[in-house]
Amino acid sequence: EPSVIIKKLLERNIFRNANQEISSDVAALVLEDLGYTAEVVRVRLEDTLPVEKRKKLVPVPPVVTVMGHVDHGKTSLLDYIRKSNVAEQEAGQITQHIGASEVTVNGKRIVFLDTPGHEAFTAMRARGAHVTDIAVLVVAADDGVMPTTLEAIDHARAAQVPIVTAINKIDRPDADPDRVMAQLAEHNLMPEDWGGDPLKDGTICVPVSAKTGEGVEELLENILLVAEMLELRADPEGWAQGTVIEAKMDPQKGPVATVLVQKGTLKKGDCIVAGDAYGKVRAMLNCKGDPLDTAGPATPVSIIGLNKVPYASDILRAVPDMKRAREEAERFARESREGRFGSRPRVSLDDLFSQIQKGDVKELNIILKADVQGSVEALSQELEGLSTKEVRVRIIHRAVGNISESDVMLASASNAIIIGFHVQVDSTARAIAEREGVDIHTYDIIYDAVNEVRGAMEGLLEPITEERLLGVAEVRALFRSSRVGTIAGCMC
Ligand code: GDP
Question: Ligand 1 center to residue 151 CA distance, Å?
Fold first, then answer.
């Protein structure tokens, strides 16, 4: 029943009504909540639709997020791509910052989300939004694979988003692209040239320079190639639906929201609702700052006309009239208030066993942080070795370092627990874990960590409360005594 599913989503703080979409990983979590196991397979959208709807689908451009280690050139690459595309726009035009940009390569569009990094990506995902089709992993050719590079790979993988690797800074004398490829392969991201499948465990690697522009064209072409393999399609007809990417209060224009339209076509004058905000599309601008009357699938637009600022990751929908828009916004506000105080059944060591018994948990996702690489390796092996027929232990991210905000968001998005060994929990991470209901455990002894997880899986941590009646007596009278206190006269 839709109501059952909506309630399960609410418990996870994801607000959707029966007409809205959820991403495959959210669907998998909900199915787990309901006692099913989900396997995510890629199907072509066409194959799931009746023929007359299938005919309406059109190819849509990919939406790309750039990720990678700090200073490896994410911002520079995005800037270069945006600037080099200016040639295709009218000269002298200033691109607006709306949180997303579009480029055209050989007549085909690519949409870039302007906030680089896997943190923003996973934060959106934790709120149930799925906007990114392809991740571009930037690795500096002189620096090589760094901890954040590996983190980005794990975050993209957990979301099942294919990765295209840009090996950047090849203009530098000490650049060594081959070494980067070897490092990626070592961490199970196999370059396509060496046999990796770009849609599964592999990645297409393109050497580039964000400074000279060398290889950038080829990078864009390869993004389009992967997009083609993904066969991204959408229906441009019907009521528009999209995701809020960015929103702010503008002193002149009021609330301004950047929305990636994902299906249908949004028109000027449409009544819209996004989270608890509603209104009418008064004006719509594309990333070049041009006013638009309509925006079809995979178009980022900045919208003026909402009554308040929505949140990034809120779903925006066009509805038939203003009354409906207001009602839906009010319902959202009501439900999110209730949801916020409701329980969120996340996986936790304390009730892992009962979740396993109920069949709610088939995979225990763990994020593992430790002080040194040796401990990371040792603990990973031990923990994965705890897998049983019923429950597979899966380390979705392992790294050296303290438990950070981004670990907590990944745990929240992937229903994982976090295990730390000889590490601290950052204070913001702790606060967010509390809010998101993410379970964190830290240990100083490997044996303790392994034992506790094993115990949790076997139900040994379950507190056993048992009352045994030894006899019953009824108090008939009380006698006060200054020497021994109160004496009860009883009938057994
Ligand atoms: P981000 O932190 O990943 O966004 O990295 P930035 O884009 O801020 O780049 C970090 C530094 O590397 C800056 O000083 C850039 O000028 C420099 N940089 C970025 N890309 C290249 C490149 O391709 N070649 C060279 N030589 N320097 C680059």
Answer: 19
**Mean pLDDT of the 72-88 span:** 83
Give the integer Cα–Cα distance in Å for 410 and 159.
Answer: 10
Among candidates 238, 235, 248, 240, which has minimal Cα distance to 302? Answer: 248
Tokens of 448: 């303790």
Cβ contact 250:274 at 8 Å: no
Contact (Cβ atoms closer than 8 angstroms) between residue 135 and residue 120:
no
Distance 178 CA to ligand 1 centre (A): 20
In the numeric block, the tokens 């680089």 are attached to 116
CB 417 within 8 A of CB 348: yes
Distance, CA of 438 to CA of 428 (rounded, Å) = 13
Strand locations in 251-347 (E): 254-263, 266-267, 271-274, 277-285, 294-295, 299-306, 315-319
Mean pLDDT of all residues in 30-41:
83
pLDDT for 168 beyond 50: yes
Biggest CA-to-CA distance, the chain = 102
Task: Record the tokens describing residue 213, joined without a space.
Answer: 């522009």
**CA separation, residue 243 to residues 15, 89, 430 (Å):** 13, 26, 28
Two structure tokens written together for 355: 């979740």
**How far apart, in Å, do the first and last CA atoms of the chain sit?**
55
Our answer on whether the CB atom of 331 is closer than 6 Å to any ligand 1 atom is: no
Measured in degrees and rounded to the nearest 5, phi and psi for residue 375 equal -70, -35
Distance 131 CA to ligand 1 centre (A): 26
Hey, what are 33's tokens? 């909540």
CB-count burial class (<10 Å; 0-12, 13-18, 19+) for 421: buried
Angle 257-315-338 from CA coordinates, rounded to 5°: 110
Tell me the pLDDT tens digit for each residue of 382-439: 999 998 887 889 999 999 999 999 999 999 888 899 999 999 999 889 988 888 889 9
- Cβ of 462 less than 6 Å from ligand 1: no
pLDDT score, position 57: 86
Any atom of ligand 1 within 6 Å of the Cβ of 118: no
Place of tokens 């994982």: 416
Helices then strands (H, E): number in the chain?
15, 23
Rounded distance between C-alpha atoms, residue 246 and residue 243, angstroms: 9
Closest of 333, 315, 403 to residue 366, by C-alpha: 403
Tally of CB atoms within 10 A around 393 = 19
Q: Which atom of ligand 1 is nearest the CA belonging to 212?
A: 23
CA dist 479 to 9, 190, 344, 472, 492, Å? 60, 84, 52, 20, 17
